[in-house]
Write a structure and sequence with these properties.
- The chain is mainly alpha-helical.
- It is built from 6 helices and no strands.
- Helix 4 packs across helix 5.
- It is globular, with a radius of gyration of 11 Å.
């Protein structure tokens, strides 16, 4: 998964973030603003993930939603 996918497709994926990660609050999603690093930091903070776990979670989720923008 290209690291720019989160930023480049932010508007398409933003609505489904809180469905998948309900512990993320609206201000978390706003502060992420398409930044992979910020996304990972929020996952680490809200879910207690280690960085490697947060990366794995994010990448797995992105693979499931990629058809939203790949069509």
């Amino acid at each position: 998964m290209d690291r720019d996918d989160v930023r480049a497709n932010w508007l398409q994926i933003k609505p489904s973030i809180r469905q998948h990660w309900p512990r993320l609050e609206e201000h978390d999603v706003v502060s992420i603003n398409g930044s992979r690093a910020a996304f990972l930091a929020c996952l680490q903070q809200r879910y207690g993930y280690a960085l490697a776990d947060a990366e794995r979670e994010l990448d797995a989720w992105l693979k499931t939603i990629k058809p939203l923008w790949a069509a």
